[in-house]
Write a structure and sequence with these properties.
The complex is a heterodimer of chains A (about 110) and B (about 110).
Chain A (H helix, E strand, L loop, with lengths): L4 E3 L2 E4 L5 E6 L6 E8 L3 E9 L2 E5 L6 E5 L5 E5 L8 E8 L7 E2 L3 E5 L1
Parallel strand pairs in A: 2-11
Antiparallel strand pairs in A: 1-3, 3-8, 4-5, 4-9, 5-6, 7-8, 9-10, 9-11
Chain B lengths: L3 E4 L2 E5 L4 E7 L6 E7 L6 E7 L4 E4 L2 E6 L4 E6 L8 E11 L2 E6 L3 E6 L1
Parallel strand pairs in B: 2-11
Antiparallel strand pairs in B: 1-3, 3-8, 4-5, 4-9, 6-7, 7-8, 9-10, 9-11
The chains are: A mainly beta (about 110), B mainly beta (about 110).
Chain lengths: ~110, ~110
């Protein structure tokens, strides 16, 4: 099976802009989770989607949002970008909630 | 929410030695504990996982132990090789009324020197 894919792989934005990242899960996986990875904070949970519904959310401001489509593909959006949003954004898919997660290659976002 | 502490943050061993990384968690309801290996510039890769109904699991040179009473779990790598050099993350899954969340430790940077 093809692994988890994410697009774009690299992105440069300026403060105040918004960005949309995309994640395609492993075929048959219905759950997609998003994480922010920074050198200082490690891997931090953003949210998880299952059957097009957000099932859980981490401690991030409302500028971070996401959605999931009927084919399980997911997008996350960050509005009004701040310098501190520069990070590697990883998505992970799993067959269902609470199951083993497999990561995509990530989208590296740089906010200038 | 779940809090996962991981130690040490850096670990340097000589090739052939063993490496041990330890994690503690706070939520007694956590029941799934995966370990991920992340090489520089690459995605985290699952290397082994354990569920709370077992105390130990082994896969070739890698083993994980779980002590539910003490709420800690450890990764053991024997006969280390230079290609084991990477950042290792432990994680614990918590299940609350708001859903599941995989909470990660801050990672251990392992360096295996020839």
């Amino acid at each position: 099976k093809a692994g988890v894919t994410q697009t774009p792989r690299y992105l440069i934005k300026t403060r105040g802009q918004q960005v949309t990242l995309s994640c395609s899960p492993i075929s048959g996986h219905r759950s997609v989770s998003w994480y922010q990875q920074t050198p200082g904070q490690g891997l931090q949970f953003l949210f998880e989607y299952f059957s097009e519904t957000q099932r859980n959310k981490g401690n991030f401001p409302g500028r971070f949002s996401g959605r999931q489509f009927s084919n399980s593909r997911s997008e996350m959006n960050v509005s009004t970008l701040e310098l501190g949003d520069s990070a590697l954004y990883l998505c992970a898919s799993s067959p269902g909630l609470g199951e083993t997660q497999y990561f995509g290659p990530g989208t590296r976002l740089l906010v200038l | 929410g779940e809090n996962v502490e991981q130690h040490p943050s850096t670990l340097s061993v000589q090739e052939g030695d063993s490496a041990v990384i330890k994690c503690t968690y706070s939520d007694s309801a956590s029941n799934y504990f995966p370990w991920y290996k992340q090489e520089l510039g690459k995605r985290p890769q699952l290397i082994i996982d354990i569920r709370s109904n077992v105390g130990e699991k082994k896969d070739q040179r890698i083993a994980v132990t779980l002590n539910k009473t003490a709420k800690h779990f450890s990764l053991h790598i024997t006969e280390t090789q230079p290609e084991d050099s990477a950042v290792y993350f432990c994680a614990a899954i918590s299940n609350s009324n708001s859903g599941y969340a995989l909470n990660f430790g801050k990672g251990t940077s392992l360096l295996v020197t020839p």
